[in-house]
Amino acid sequence: MDQLGHLMEGFAVAFTPQNLLFLVIGAVLGTAVGVLPGLGSAMAVALLLPVTFSLDPTGAFIMFASIYFGGLFGDSTSGILLNTPGNSSAIATTFEGHRMAKDGRAAKALGTSAIGAFIGGTIACILVVFFAPAIVQLATIFGPAEYFALAVFAFVAISAVVADSIVRGLVSLGLGFALALVGIDGMTGTERFTAGSPVLFDGISIIVITVGLLALGEVLHVGSYIRRSGGPGAVVAPKGSPMLNAREWRQALPAFLRGTAFGVPFGAIPVGGSEVPTFLAYGTEKRLAKRRNDPDFGTRGAIQGVAGPEAAGNATAGSAMGALLGLGIPTSATAAMMIAAFQQYGMQPGPLLFERSGDLVWPLLASLFLGLIILLIINLPFAAVWAKLLLIPRHYLYAGISVVAMLGIYAIASRTVDLWMALGIGVVGLIMRRFALPLAPVLIAAILGPLAETQLRRALAVSEGDPTILVSSPITVVLYLLLAVVVGVSVLQHTRHTVRRRKTDKADALVR
């Protein structure tokens, strides 16, 4: 129980008035930067890194703890309200969260997001404190074949679950792969699909893809709808409290716990951050919604579709901190920025960090708990205030979204070509919405496609071209078996749904 004693000592340091002030400032600044499209939580840490130069190491790390989680909440806030997630980790939350916002339940979606972030992050931090060695050991048993199997599982499972048609899901997956292939081949250094343009050598930024597909695609879709219908339509005023009632708690609590279960182990695995667990949590909630015939999921927006991904994302962030401190492995872009913060003070995360710098590490871990509490206290009452943004007339609101989105994209590399690419991807997003193609597979393929390709080629290089290495470990076999079960169940559900719909259509035809 030495960990508990060290944690209490960390709380004693973090509970001083000065350090509590640093926590509040970090939470506010992190949320404010995270809300801006194109910046997100990783950029929040990067932009606010110079702010801490004048602080002592303890105060700086305590402020970073609240910036870390504050940026994540800001990512989800912009996604729910404006369909423009600040970072790719908030994409899965955006799907149902924005539907709830358009239905007038923006405050409820933001409240669910805040509570899910608190529950997922708190459970993950508790596990990091008491079971850090077991969590970080996950990172040592994953090789190239296991990473590839994990990526394939994410690709196919998400495409099969989130789409009403498996074929449409695979088409969207192919579009994502096409976007991911642009740039320099990481293994050979040759250029691919760049048309000889140096600006494409680094590939298409995931921020450009996300903002173009979700934000600009939505703006174009709404604009075309207004043009066809002859008017902007009625604005749905936000209503209701951000607090969950007893029935909503019964709906959301299992989703919170399922999302946390997805997120905790993925924080220790360098497989692209929290995108995989959040999408898996979303896919699980959608599959369960189909089983219980939930009419809100995918239409008005279901609270479980926000609760699961949000808990998964923050649980991943919490356990990623354990992997960062215990092994020195950054498993996300935000964690990589945290390494820069450590190195700024001459510290190198790794197995010896707890022994050499325990006086800094334990206050940092204690401040993670306090930062989550402060974020919940700040953001839950203000959820209804954030929701008032939706009362802005549509033509002003969507014009503002377009401007902010383009500014966020331009802030990445100050290149106008990124703006044109985002606009082109936005047109693709409009076409996908017209033909009911799901957006999630495009995003997950664009995010994990390069990782899957690199790990596949590494595995084949190690085995000298022997493909059996891809199924040579128990982890890969289990993942592929689970994938077969998921696909089989999904095909069966789609078949039943099609048969049921045809019977309904026939019955309606006979009545007419």
TrEMBL record:
Transmembrane segments: 20-49, 61-82, 109-135, 147-163, 170-187, 199-220, 323-342, 362-384, 396-413, 469-492
Keyword annotations from UniProtKB, A to Z: Membrane, Transmembrane, Transmembrane helix
Stretches assigned to the DUF112 domain: 20-443
Annotated PANTHER family: TRICARBOXYLIC TRANSPORT PROTEIN (PTHR35342)
The protein's name in its UniProt record: Tripartite tricarboxylate transporter permease
Protein's organism: Microbacterium hatanonis
